[in-house]
Amino acid sequence: MAQPSTPRPGAILLVEDCYDVRIGLAQLLTLNGYRVTDTADGEHAIDELNANPEGFALILLDLLLPGSISGNDVRARQLADPQLATVPTVVVTAFEPEAEAQAVLKPEVWLEKPFRGEQLLSVVRRYVRPDGPGLVSGFGVRPPAFDDPTLDDPGSDVADSMATPRPPRADLKI
After folding, report:
1. What are the backbone angles phi and psi of residue 130, rounded to the nearest 5°?
2. What φ, ψ does residue 83 adopt, rounded to 5°?
């Protein structure tokens, strides 16, 4: 499927059954200024899409989901609906894509687990415009990703910037 020429506004529908992964991804995206609606199964994903078909700029879709509607089923229903078919979809899964399955699903991107947070953000930035700067930009420096190896090096500039206290900013709203 064709990539949009510019990122579009809207929420990200995150469909992931593993609680820890879902919450971690939702937090990462939210900290970077994105609006996220998350669900743990296909039934709720379909409900969210039907309730707000124009509200989503991107779908992050795991294929192995509990219940009677799999990730494959969610994608098939999405592609069958002309309005929903225009929403870019990134398949996020732990198994190797088979060429035939990938051709049927027609995802914009196939992101294999495990992946780094910055990999996901790089993909999301192609399709979604953040609602705001997120909490990340409020620190004055970009905090490292949760998987950044410089966090382990106490002598790095990143570690120093994280340890240096900063005065409170008047323009931040909490």
Report:
1. -60, 150
2. -70, -40
State whether 113 and 160 are in the same domain.
no
Domain extent at residue 59: 11-133
Using CA atoms, how far apart are residues 47 and 143, in angstroms rounded to an integer? Answer: 35
The DSSP code sequence of 109-157 is EEEESS--HHHHHHHHHHHB--SS-TTGGGGSSPPPPTT-GGGG-TTSH
Contact 78, 89 (CB under 8 A): yes
pLDDT in tens, 114-147: 889 999 999 999 999 998 877 655 554 454 455 5
Is residue 103 located within the same domain as residue 139? no
DSSP conformational letter for 106: -
* pTM score, whole prediction: 0.75
Is residue 112 within 8 Å of 120, Cβ to Cβ?
no
Q: Give the angle subtended at the CA of 16 by the CAs of 25 and 10, to the nearest 5°.
A: 65
Determine the Cα–Cα distance for residues 72 and 67; give it in Å rounded to an integer.
12
Over the stretch 4-43, which tens digit does the pLDDT of each residue have?
558 999 999 999 999 999 999 999 999 999 999 999 999 9
Peptide bond into 114 cis (omega under 30): yes
